[in-house]
Amino acid sequence: MKLFNQALLARQAWRLVAHPDSLCARLLKAKYFPNGEMIDTVFPTDSSPSWKGIEFGLELLKKGIIWRVGNGDKIQIWRDNWIPKDSLLKIMGRRTGCRLRWVSQLMRRDVRDWDMDLVRKIFHDHDVEEVLKIRIPSRPTEDSLAWHFAKSGLFSVRSAYKLALRDFIQQQGVASSSSSMDGGRRVWKLLWSTPVPQKIKFFAWKLATEGLATMQNRMRRNLESDSTCRLCGTGEEDSYHAVVACTKSRALHDELRKDWELISEDMLVRSGPEWFLLLLDKLDTEARAQVLFCFWRSWHLRNDAVHGKGLASVEASASFVKNYWSSLLCIRHSADQNEKGKSQVVSTWQ
Q1: For the whole model, what pTM was predicted?
Q2: Residue 36, SS3?
Q3: Where's the Reverse transcriptase zinc-binding domain (predicted)?
Q4: What is the DSSP string of 282-350?
Q5: Which of 83, 312, 317, 340 has the fewest CB atoms within 10 Å, i.e. is most exposed?
Q6: Is there a single domain that holds both residue 330 and residue 206?
Q7: Domain enclosing residue 309, as ranges
Q8: Boundary residue ending a domain (80, 113, 147)
């Protein structure tokens, strides 16, 4: 939940950076950074709670905001993010004691191109390659700020959350499996590529981002006065309790294990706020799909008991899930056979 909140606050910080002429941005600038820019500000310890919230979001925003090179007059070579790589967006180091400060000083303005000799002289080889990949506009254009983790350059909460999650998972020691995408983005790819219906993927996304209407979340929004689980009454109902720890959910897990090799309860541990994504990272494709089906139906049982007539039984739910899963496997098998047949026809024709 903390990471998702940080992504939401980063959106507020982005609005202030992207729209510096707005009334709110001008008021904050006058009070907190009259002689500088928000992205470079060192914040006072006695700032207001609202500003501290924006500061928390700005910490994340700074990791993904990048300068798009125009004339280079606003971009500081050694300090700013301006190198479009997958992780660190800054120059890694300098080869000589260079005193140049601005990116514009690296250009040959008469031909709208980099001064290649100068770039190779002051940067290490890996940075030289990255700098020379950046295309300088053919016409004089001002530098502009963009969000690196979206092709459009526009900030999105979803991509910011993925960035925060990537950093969190790296801190937790989850290894990267790709040179271009590591940590959190890889886990999200695992989730979205799981062979389950879209509605179950959407549920999983809400579960991963603490977006379910649990008693805990409803209490935080002043919609409930008590966060205790209404089904079992044995503890506070957060997302983990709702789909794992509640007696109704455990009963569904046990019923499914009669036919499925569902992961053991020992693996369903509350390992922190990102327990669900850390769990998915440990599973193969089939196990991931079964877990998503199981949690999705656990949430359905909970909602039927709390908001519906309470007629859905554990046995009927388990039977429904297993039949649903079997139907999907048959459809996928048929699709694979059809694709294989088409390939054979094409091969024969050739």
Answers
A1: 0.50
A2: coil
A3: 155-251
A4: TS-HHHHHHHHHHHHHHHHHHHHHHHS-S---HHHHHHHHHHHHHHHHHHHHHHHHHHHHHHHHHHHH-
A5: 340
A6: yes
A7: 194-338
A8: 147
